[in-house]
Design brief:
The strands form 2 sheets. Strands 4-3-5-6-11-10 form a 6-stranded mixed β-sheet, sandwiched between helices. Strands 2-1-7-8-9 form a 5-stranded parallel β-sheet. The protein starts with a helix and ends with a helix. The chain has helices at about 5-25, 35-45, 45-50, 65, 70-80, 100-105, 120-125, 145-155, 170-180, 195-200, 205-210, 220-235, 255-265, 295-300, 315-320, 345, 350-360; strands spanning about 30, 55-60, 85-90, 110-115, 130-140, 160-170, 190, 215, 245, 265-275, 280-285. By secondary structure, the protein is α/β, with parallel strands linked by helices. The chain folds into 3 domains: about 5-60 and about 185-245, HypD, alpha/beta domain 1 (Rossmann fold, 3-Layer(aba) Sandwich), CATH 3.40.50.11750; about 65-170 and about 255-300, Rossmann fold, CATH 3.40.50.11740; about 315-360, no CATH class. The radius of gyration is 21 Å and the shape is globular. Strand 10 (about 265-275) and strand 11 form a beta hairpin. Helix 1 (about 5-25) runs parallel beside helix 12, helix 2 runs parallel beside helix 17 (about 350-360) and helix 8 crosses helix 13 (about 255-265).
């Protein structure tokens, strides 16, 4: 890095830190919604230098973490079918279901492929016309446009052996559910940058208008996060609540209209279950009727069966911001990134994994 630029950034960071501390009469509880923010906050040391001004808590912002065991069980059931090749992203391989994981199933002979792009699943279907290929699709609004484009491409190519098991989730309904439950006291939201590139500002307005809580759509560099925190504390000091955009170099107020249009062409919102938050109205995405032939849940008659977290695991409470990872009796002992018990320790963006790597082990 250019030494002059680095000097300027250090000066700006120092100024922001001082202004943040000057605005805080007492530690305010701010929730970072995105798992990428959680990792960035730990890596940069922001949490440790702001303890007198800000109490940072993590929320349900990791799509792998909020995928409930019942959804993993459905994917496992599909992978056990002889004719099926299951394609999925790598972070999902070790997430525990009620009695197994995709990694364990692959070790026992199931045909499970780790892919880097949704289009890889279509290619697998083309290369294996005598097999049924199911893409287990997990993600937030960030990845949904690409998944929608993949579904359209599979239809265009006439891939009759391609299916989608959709486990996609929408962030704003989860925030509404979290606030409506009234279990956790939140003074402000550090809102996700990547998701907001797609959806823009409007879907979060209810946070300020209905609950009186400010939010700032924030980038992922340390200076972004410090500025986002400063903007939140300034709102609190001025006695107002609104949704502001710090990450203006990437996020437009209206979001990405093209991306939202392709999502709307392929998917429709539906009620969905979240680990920790339970069933949330209109918080998932399922295929529209015109794409129903690709719906693996329908084609293979896969009912959703709820399953509880492993005994002693506090992932559900961690995802709600009610407990911190070190509060869990399994943290750092029975549950580690090498041998995870809960989903929050599996994902590279999971809160427990972040605490384990950066926050110290009890």
């Amino acid at each position: 890095m250019n030494p002059h630029k680095r000097h300027d950034e250090e000066k700006l960071a120092s100024r922001l830190l001082q202004e943040i501390k000057g605005l805080a009469d007492h530690p305010l509880r701010l929730m970072e919604v995105c798992g990428t923010h959680t990792i960035a906050i730990f890596r940069s040391g922001i949490r440790s230098v702001l303890t007198d001004a800000v109490d940072l808590i993590s929320g349900p912002g990791c799509p792998v973490c909020v995928t409930p065991a019942g959804e993993i069980d459905r994917a496992i059931a599909l992978s056990r079918r002889q004719e099926v090749i299951l394609a999925t992203f790598g972070d999902l391989m070790r997430v525990p279901g009620s009695s197994s994981s995709l990694q364990q199933e692959r070790a026992e002979g199931s045909a499970i492929r780790v892919i880097l792009s949704p289009l890889d699943a279509v290619q697998i279907a083309q290369e294996n016309p005598d097999r049924t290929v199911v893409f287990f699709a997990v993600g937030f609004e960030t990845t949904s446009p690409a998944i929608a484009a993949t579904v359209k491409e599979a239809q265009r190519q006439g891939c009759a052996n391609f299916y989608l098991l959709s486990c996609q989730r929408l962030v704003p309904p989860a925030l509404r559910a979290l606030l409506s439950a009234g279990k956790v006291n939140i003074d402000g939201f550090i809102l996700p940058g990547h998701v907001s590139v797609i959806i823009g500002k409007a879907p979060y307005l209810f946070v300020a208008d209905e609950f009186g809580i400010p939010g700032v759509i924030t980038g992922f560099e340390p200076l972004d996060i410090l500025e986002g925190i400063y903007m939140l504390l300034r709102q609190k000091k001025e006695g107002r609540a609104g949704i502001e955009i710090q990450y203006s170099r990437a996020v437009k107020e209206e979001g990405n209209q093209l991306a939202r249009e392709i999502m709307g062409e392929v998917f429709v919102p539906a009620d969905a279950c979240w680990r920790g938050l339970g069933w949330i109205s209109q918080s998932g995405l399922i295929l529209r009727e015109e794409f129903a032939a690709m719906d693996a849940a329908r084609a293979f008659d896969l009912p959703y069966v709820e399953a509880s977290d492993p005994q002693g695991c506090l992932c559900s409470e961690v995802l709600q911001g009610l407990r911190r990872p070190p509060d869990c009796p399994l943290f750092g002992t029975r549950c580690t990134p090498v041998e995870p018990v809960g989903a929050c320790m599996v994902s590279s963006e999971g809160n427990c994994a972040a605490y384990y790597k950066y926050g110290g082990i009890p």
